[in-house]
Recover the amino acids of this structure.
């Protein structure tokens, strides 16, 4: 059985728009965390780096969408819909916000990893090499962020528990 190319192409475009919305959501979430962190300098620095990467990722996705002949004027609505589904999370109010925030970031990175693997598969089916390459390079940044969190979350927990005994207000961020 052959793929129906126009149908596959529309799905690829939708998934690129989803990914763009995901990056805009990631940027909002990461900026929120970065702006609030005070007692976790390493986490803050890594998040600042990933904010830069995330902004560049969103820009590259817009180029991919345009390159495939897709409309980027509707991206804002798309982001709004995506954000509405993510609003269940508001770790900023939690007494352990740094722990919840890094846990949520780790989970979010893995959702991004899954999304880019799917995009690469779809782009390859359609022979859209450039889109596949862009998604591959974004995927590598997400994997790097996920593995940084994997290696550093235990330090965050340790620092949190140390501070929690002395100054719970400081511990949370
Ligand atoms: Fe990302």
């Amino acid at each position: 059985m052959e793929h129906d190319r126009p149908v596959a192409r529309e799905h690829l475009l939708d998934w690129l728009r989803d990914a763009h919305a995901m990056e805009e959501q990631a940027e909002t979430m990461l900026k929120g965390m970065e702006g609030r962190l005070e007692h976790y300098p390493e986490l803050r620095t890594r998040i600042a780096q990933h904010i830069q990467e995330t902004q560049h990722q969103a820009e590259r996705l817009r180029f991919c969408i345009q390159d495939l002949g897709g409309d980027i004027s509707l991206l804002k609505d798309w982001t709004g819909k995506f954000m509405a589904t993510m609003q269940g999370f508001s770790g900023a109010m939690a007494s352990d916000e740094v722990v919840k925030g890094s846990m949520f970031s780790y989970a979010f990175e893995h959702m991004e990893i899954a999304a880019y693997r799917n995009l690469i598969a779809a782009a390859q089916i359609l022979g859209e090499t450039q889109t596949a390459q862009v998604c591959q390079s974004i995927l590598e940044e997400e994997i790097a962020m996920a593995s940084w969190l994997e290696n550093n979350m235990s330090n965050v927990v340790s620092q949190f528990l140390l501070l929690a005994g002395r100054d719970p207000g400081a511990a949370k961020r």
The chain has a mean pLDDT of 92. Helices lie at 5-36, 41-67, 75-86, 97-125, 129-164, 168-171. The pocket of fe (ii) ion is lined by residues 23, 26, 54, 57, 112, 142 (CB under 6 Å).
